[in-house]
Amino acid sequence: MITEIQEGKALSPVVKHVTQEKINLYAEASGDFNPIHIDESFAAKTPLGGTIAHGMLNLAYVSEMMTSAFGQSWLSGGKLRAKFKEPARPGDTLTINGKIDCVEQKDDVSYANCIFECCNQKGETIVTGETIIKLLGDKE
Amino acid sequence: MSVETVSYEELIPGYKFPPATYELSSSLVSKYLDAVDSAGDGFVPPLAITACAIAAMTGSLSLPSDAIVIHASQELEFFKLVPIGATIECHIGVAQKITRSKMGMLILEFEVLDKSKDKVQSGKATIALPT
Question: Which candidate, A15, B12, B16, B47, has a CA 20 to 30 Å from the CA of A92?
Answer without folding.
Answer: B47
